[in-house]
Amino acid sequence: MQIGIVGLPYSGKTTFFQTLTETHFDPNVLQKKDVNQAIIKVPDERLDKLTQIFNPKRKVNATIEIVDLVGVQKPEPGHSAFSTQFLSKVRTNDALIHVVRGFEDDSVPHIEGSIDLLRDIKTFEDELIFSDMAFAESKLEKLEKDLQKQKTKDQAIKEIGIITKWNEVLSEGKPLRELDFDLEEQKLIRNYQLLSAKPLLIALNLNETDIPKKDQIVQNIKNNFNGKNIRIEPFFAKIEMELAQLSDEEKIIFMEEYGLKDSAVSRLIRSAYDLLGLQSFFTVGDDECRAWTIKKGMTAQESAGVIHTDFYNKFIRAEVVHYNDFIDCGSFAKCKEKGLFRLEGKEYILLDGDIMHIRHG
User: Fold this and answer.
1) First to last CA, the chain
2) Which CA distances in Å does 25 have to 19, 124, 130, 231?
3) pLDDT category of residue 77 using cuts at 50, 70 and 90
4) What is the pLDDT averaged over residues 211-226?
5) Count of H helices and E strands in the chain?
6) Domain spans of the chain?
7) What is the tens place of the pLDDT at every residue in 309-348?
8) At the topology level of CATH, where does 2-114+195-275 sit?
9) What CATH class does 298-360 carry?
C-alpha cells in the first residue's frame, strides 16, 4: 500500500515526510526529484508487548510506503494547480495525506498571503474534483465513439452509465469518496485511479501555541468539512522534529512539558493505516514476532497467503486467539483452558489483533 503526501508550498509537507520516515535532506532537492519515498514501520504497542513476552531473535512491524510529492502550485485563474506530471505521480497512490499549513512564519509567507485552514482544504478538494471531472468528460467522449464498435458496445454502455452518475456527483462539488461503490464500480475506480475517490487524511500543521486548543480546531474543521473516508489529525512539525532527536525517556518529559499525550507520528501512521482499511494479525515464536498487514474482511486462508502462497494453497486450519485474550490469560495454555484458543476454518474472518498459527499440508 502506498500513501502520497501532498500540500501547497511551505505547508511543512516535506518536514512531515522527514518526521514520518526519520530522514533528513534538503527540501529543494525534492523539486528536482519529483518524489521521495520510503517504507515506514507501523507502530504497534501490541507487537512490542508480544516481543517482550516471547523475546524472539527479531521483531518485524507491519509497513506502508510513503511518497512525498512535489508541492501543488497556486492555480492561475481558469487553470488547474495540478500539472500533468503531478497527476501521473499522485494517481498511483492508494490514499492521500494533505498537509495543510496552520502555522505562522514571517520568514516563509503563505502563498495566499494568509493562514486559512478551511480555504486551503477546500481549494485542494476542488482541484481533486475538477481533475476527476476533466477525466470523466474525456472518457465519456471516448466511450461514445466505442458505441459505434460492435465488440465494445455493451461494455461502453455500461461504463457510460457509471461515469455519467459519477460526473453528476462531481458537478455538485462532491468527491467520489462519498459514494458506496458496487463491485463493477470498484473495478473501474481502480483502473481509472480517480483522485477524489481516494481516502484522505488531512494533517493540520499547527503552531505550538495551538496545542491547548487543538481539539477545538479539529472540531471546527470537521463541522465544515467532513465525510466518508476522511480523517483529520493535528500535527506540530517543529515539535515532532525535536522529538525525533530525543531518547524515549527524554520524549516523555518533552511531551509532558507541552501537554501532549503521544507523538503525532504514531497517531498519524495508525490513522493512515486504518483509513486504507488495513489491519494486522500476528505470528509469534522464538525466532520472530511479526505483524502482518491485511485488508479488513480477509479470511484465514487469504491471510495465510500473505505469509506464503503455500500456506494458502495447502491451508487446513488456523489456530487463533485474540491478542487481548492472550494478554489477559498470560499464556497459550491458559487460553486453551478457557476455550479462547480456537481452531478456525478457511472462511474465518480475521479480526485486528488476532494471533494466528497455520496448519497446512
Assistant:
1) 30
2) 11, 26, 33, 28
3) low
4) 92
5) 15, 12
6) 2-114+195-275, 298-360
7) 999 999 999 999 999 999 999 999 999 999 999 999 999 9
8) Rossmann fold (3.40.50)
9) alpha beta
